[in-house]
Structure formats: C-alpha cells, structure tokens
C-type lectin domain-containing protein
Amino acid sequence: LKNHLMVCQLYQYHYVNEEKTWKEAQQYCSQKHTDLATVTNMKDMKRLISVSLGDIKEAWIGLYDQTNAQRSWHWSLPGVEFNERETKWAKDEPNNKGAGGQKCGITWKESDLFSKWGDLSCNEKHNFLCYSGETTNWTEAQSYCRQKHTDLISGLKQLQDGEVNKGLNLATANSRYIFTGLFSDTWMWSDGNSSSFRHWNLKFNNQKINSGQCAMTVFDDGGRWKNENCDERKPFLCYDGKFYINLN
C-alpha cells in the first residue's frame, strides 16, 4: 500500500487574561501569536472551551460583523461551500422581506419531482431536516442537529439524497416549510478565514441581540457566542496556526 501524505492545520488556543477592546486584542494576538481565535468546527470549539480555568466567564474571539457589507450565504455544516451556481431558489427568492429580514434558508416540496428554496425569518418555528418530529426556530434546530446527529442538512448533494426526500415528504405533512442549514450573515473572521462555523447563543437567532459588532465566547453558557460592543474591555483568546504532517 502506498503512503499518503496529509497536511493538516491545528489551532493552538491561548487565553490572555488582560482586558482589552476587541481591536486591541486583535493587534496583540497578531503580534504575539497568529490572530484572535478562529473556530472552524465543533472539535475546535471543544478545545477552545478546554482552556477555561473555571473563573473565566467570557473572552473575545476573532469574529466580527461587517456592518455595511452585503450579506453572503453559507451552509451550517463546516467544509460545505455555498455555490451560487448550484442553487434552487424559487422565483423572487431570496427576498429578505420584513422588518427583521429573512436570513435562514428553507425548502419545500413543490411537486413529487423537485423542491424549491426560499428564505424566512430565523425566529419562525418550522420542521427541520435532521429530525422532522417537532418544530423549532433555526438556531435551536442547528443546536439539536449538532447534538444528536452532525448538523442541519447542508449542500446540494445532501438535499438531493433519496433519504432526505423521504424525510421531506414526511415533514411536509405537518409543515410546508422545512429549515435547512442555509443562512446569511455579514460576519467574518479577523484572520480572513472563510469558515462558516457559528456557535451563537440560542437567543441570537441570527439577529442582533444588542448593538455589538464583535463576538465573544461565554464559558458558562457552554462556550456559546454572543455579540458585544467592540469597545468593551474583555480578556481574549489568541491562536497559533501550526501545520503538521501525517504520513499514512
């Protein structure tokens, strides 16, 4: 058997017990390490939580909101890239209607042959595609799927799966619209990483819960994130991005 060379990136997280604004923390991390903490999946999230020393309540991470940027669509499942050329939006969708906007993706059965996509408010309650036996809002659905399965259904390939179509037929008996892992936001990582991974507090629902444009992780809330005013002074988490080689 031939050996296979695999190059992976491992994030090494460092908690800094100094209170700084988000911008000051980002400058410190870029000088002393690589950048403020970037989180790309639940494994990263668990390792980030492990740096908590018990008395740590919250800390800045590298996610911030581009307030005037155009929203971009992402899939909830890390590693699944959104491709605008491979979409099934219904006519005039997505339209982001309403005062609070429509920032979470849905699908519905238009015929026995195909389904269509649209956008709705993340606060509405609908069935969802990893489990069709109850209704909930999008953020709670994402949390359930990550705990019980892997994630909300993400990507055109998964949505075209035969088993998914069976689930869609069952779900539409109770609810016309079904939440998928598609969502839009204007948040990005300070190091330029394109990761779509989000771990918001369940109250966030992809809407702003206050005026804050910078994200922090809250350790006594299972590491979940909340947005905060960037000028607040908080401790923070840096990371070193190290590459290692695995020869199989």
Q: What stands out?
A: The radius of gyration is 19 Å. The mean pLDDT is 81. The chain has five helices and 13 strands.
